[in-house]
Amino acid sequence: MTQEAESKSLAAIRDVIDSARPLIYLQSSEEDRACALLAQAAAGRGGAKMDLFVWSVTDGLQHGGRSAKAQPEGPRGMLDYVIVHEKPAIFVLKDFHEYLGDAEIRRRLRDIYAACMNAGKFAVILAPVRRIPEELHREVAYLTLPPPDVVELGGLVREEAERLGAGLAEDQAYMLVRALQGLTFNEARHAIRRAVAVHGKLDPSVVPTLQEEKRLLVRKTGLIEYVPDTAPIEDVGGVEVLKKWLTERRELFYSRESLSAEIVPKGLLLMGVSGCGKSLSARSVANVFELPLYRIDMVRVFAEGLGRAERLFADACRAMEEVAPAIIWFDEIEMGISAHHQESSGVLDRIFAFFLTWMQEKPLGLFVAATANRIDLLPAEMIRKGRFDQVFFLDLPDKDERQQIFEIHLRKRGVDPAGLSVELVASRTDGWTGAEIEQCVVAAIISARLANEPLTDKYLLPSLRQIVPLSKTMKEQVNHIRSWAFDRAVRASAKK
Ligand SMILES: Nc1ncnc2c1ncn2[C@@H]1O[C@H](COP(=O)(O)OP(=O)(O)O)[C@@H](O)[C@H]1O
Ligand SMILES: [Mg+2]
Question: Where are the domains of the chain?
């Protein structure tokens, strides 16, 4: 988080400028933030400085924070101004989507495209909504601002600290940044200022207040939780097919604005044996896509009875539309259903009907990761192709996968697996889930620690006996899930 690092948003803006596309449509409701980023882009990386002009119908043309000497007349005059301007510059046109209905304006924008090409001039339409007329599609480079990342939030934290005259060490600033992740830029600023008002200072002691603020903002509906701890894909052992699918889909997702909607990834459903990494994989989706993760709590949706569930669920889904781009995680989506599936109120049917329609209509920037244990409780349409891009079945891991999982959990706890008979324990744990393997590693570490010795086979091998795998105790159920999934889902693991 150094001063020189470039935030993702700035990099995205610089990319379009570097690609020399003179007509840019930047969709964002965070106008100040967008203008600040464009100013940074105009300031250039190394000397290549451009002028920045900002136009709005109320303030006219501004340059360097002051009214420009020559004021163009209205939106049409503004476009003429861009065309005759002689030096490289970025022109920010606030709310210009309002004028795109006018044929003359549209024509003039296409003139700008031709006139500014190779002239180092850029017209940036800055608008909170996407409204690009058909005939401009080819000329316009469309861009949305990604949520502020660590670098950008770091800049905000430093700026606010400076305003207060407070010194903040790099690691202290980082703690604040972590607490702010998942908020928009304005929300983050608001959260900082509120925390400062409460505590009278800005240092790591305000972290709980920042987190509380985040909870309040995200939980407007009471059902949505921002999940800060996403999992790197390397933390997930096995499931190679799923991993490959995710990395491929990430590219498609990022190009979503230039693709037809039907090929933009919408979501995936993970089902399978309990403890085989469904929740872990869902968290890793956010990591692969590098997006904030929000979880919708299905238990809470149904907590106040079936009567209220319908509205609560719809509200939660709608609220998510405001946080796009993001990953929405419905964990154990069949929850609540199992408690209510005897009741024939029709409410459940309506909830699912709503969900399926919403999956089709939600903004492209939302990707759904749903998990289910008892997928046989879900209605058939839910699994049918077209709703989710793919239904994956996470089975009990095979021997190679178990070895990977052992190694992951040993390394996570600072133990080098090289000195241990990992292959042997992997071969002796047929039928174990990832969760059970993790439990076994923890048990071994505890016994070694109690003996005050480093972890060796002496402690790892006996710990195998401490765990009785679920696939033994609940053989019937596990077999039921497996046979159900056999012809309804794609195996997440590579076939052996
Ligand atoms: N494939 C795996 N690779 C690494 N760890 C795993 C794997 N599967 C399960 N685990 C461990 O077990 C824990 C519980 O798994 P979880 O994802 O909650 O299972 P599920 O949601 O399928 O019931 C995870 O947090 C992780 O530590
Ligand atoms: Mg789970």
Answer: 8-144, 150-218, 233-394, 399-473
